[in-house]
Amino acid sequence: MQQEKLDIILDKIITKYKELEKKCDFILCENSDYMGENSAFAFDINVAITKTLGSSLLIVGNGHQKSVEEISISLKIIADSYREKHCKILGIIINKVAQKDIQKLTEHLRNTYQKNNYLFSVIPYNKRLDSPRMREVAEQLQAKVLYGEKRLNNLVFNYLIAAMQMQHAITQLNDNDLVVTPSDRGDVIMGALQAHHSTNYPNLAGILLTTECHLENSIAQLIAGLSHPLPILWVDTYTYPTASRLQTIYSSLEAGDMEKINWSIELFDKYVNLSILEHLIDEIEIDGITPKMFTYNLIQTAKANKRHIVLPEGKDNRILKAVATLTSQDIVDITLLGERNRIERTIQSYGIQLDIDKLNIIDPIKSPKLEQYTQTLYKARKNKGVTLENAKDMLMDVSYFGTMMVYAGDADGMVSGAINTTGNTIRPALQIIKTKPEYKLVSSVFFMCLEDRVLVYGDCAINANPTAEQLAEIAIISAETSQTFGVFPRVALLSYSSGNSGIGEDVERVKQATIVAKKRRPDLLFEGPIQYDAAVDRTVAAQKMPDSKVAGEATVFVFPDLNTGNNTYKAVQRETGAIAIGPILQGLKKPVNDLSRGCTVEDIINTVVITAIQASYN
């Protein structure tokens, strides 16, 4: 399956999941079975769904007509495969096991998986649960029901092909048999009906008539006169092709089949240790938020608090493609800066699905607010030597004009940098919008969307060599940003040593930053100095910092300098295939965010959505 199609499926699953989440305390997701030629695909999509939802796995295996050795080999393959994909396995239940193998298989599971703290249970084969009802046979064969509609709930244990003489066929009858015979075999039909009503012979499930022949009128009239006739079905195919089709009939546990549901509950209660299962479910640890959930939440939050974002680089085709998505999904309101004719030509050249007449486009040189913005900028910067003429010239730069829109309240935020440099994007914001009163500097974070979780890296783009005080500020505001976007902050201030194991100027700087951060925000979790492996790996953390509430579970990583941070985020992005959303600027009074000049359409969409959310919190 193409990744694009898989993403569409996963997005739909998340939407359904979130709808259920609003009204349910517990959600059980049934994944696909490993049947037929698509078993490899089924495994891949099950992994994708599991990781997308951040759920634990309960492996349910089918042991019907398999030896203990066959079950063990299959189970090892599937369990190892899920572990290799870093899926969390809660337990293993093997269903439909032969009664004689229950003890042996249970001992094998105990010896093999007890060290993993899994639930392991073995449930014996139950004929009643595995058998289809006459209704299911009729539906799956697309058979016509001739008689006995009120008894279509009869269970079918076996199929008896009655092509022989009735005196021989009658000796082969067993309880809940479905007798299969051609429609013109009146002797077999009458014999089966009589045997069913005789106390000396088994109770049958029904009769299935084959071939294009029809019942003789005399037999049909006789059956019609019975008060409680057996279900009699008819198909127009010959007996042996029909027999082959019967082998594909399967039984499912339907919501309205209370009898089978009650049998299932009885079996489950008897053979599965419910107290252990409940304990394991209660002990499930949610390792942060998954990337798909993260982006879903971003879009839903932005939609719920719709904001107006200005994009100064309206002539760039990537910007326009992103705008097409953002506006079609009604996520944000957009203003584009640039010459209308040039923007229209770009839309036509790239075949972008955008209606130019519905776009809010401003050409700074023609804007009716140019004079107002000129006066405002002049007043804000005249103490820096900016004249009125200088201010007007500066506003011909789309980055300055967009920043003035945000400053004046005509837009809630700005995203730029697809064409312009980082300096061109950030400089106007620092000069005009400035930092929040409680912060002394602007810093940045990246949201690192790994395969199964989202981490926050800061500062990887702005501050080259922060002091201890600045590192503390970066740690605090990064934790706040993390909270804003649904990532619980456990902040690791990174260094080349953990705890008190190292000495040196760089280690001391991180140590002091940690002390300052804890003092300023005792409500947040900080740890430092700490090495990256101790911050992310619970095993390493248990050795190096066993008493830490952050070690092994960090979600926010504060790097000691720009060189380390920038190289690390790029290395992680390259080696793991992680999506890096950012840099997201933090500390400004109003949100302005920078794009990489190599940004993709998806990067632009994500950054605009994040900017809108920042604006709603401001």
Give the key terms:
618 residues; alpha/beta; Udp-n-acetylmuramoylalanyl-d-glutamate--2,6- Diaminopimelate Ligase, Chain: A, domain 1; Rossmann fold; 6-stranded mixed beta sheet; 25 helices; P_AcTrfase_dom1; EC 2.3.1.8; DRTGG; acyltransferase
Mean pLDDT: 91
* End-to-end Cα distance: 42 Å
CATH architecture descriptor of the largest domain: 3-Layer(aba) Sandwich
Number of helices: 25
CATH fold-type name of the largest domain? Rossmann fold
Strand order of the largest sheet: 16-15-17-14-13-18
CATH class of the largest domain: Alpha Beta
Number of domains: 4
Strand elements, count:
19
Computed over alpha carbons, the radius of gyration is 34 Å
Based on helices, strands and strand pairing, what is the structural class? Answer: alpha/beta
Low-confidence stretches: none
Morphology: elongated
What is the makeup of the main sheet?
Answer: 6 strands, mixed
Q: Please identify the oligomeric state.
A: single chain
Strand portion: 15-25%
User: What share of the residues lie within helices?
Assistant: 40-55%
Domain Phosphate acetyl/butaryl transferase: 293-612
Pathway: Metabolic intermediate biosynthesis; acetyl-CoA biosynthesis; acetyl-CoA from acetate: step 2/2
Keywords: Acyltransferase, Transferase
Protein name: Phosphate acetyltransferase
Task: Write a concise synopsis of the structure shown.
Its EC number is 2.3.1.8. This protein is of the alpha/beta class. The protein is built from 25 helices and 19 strands.
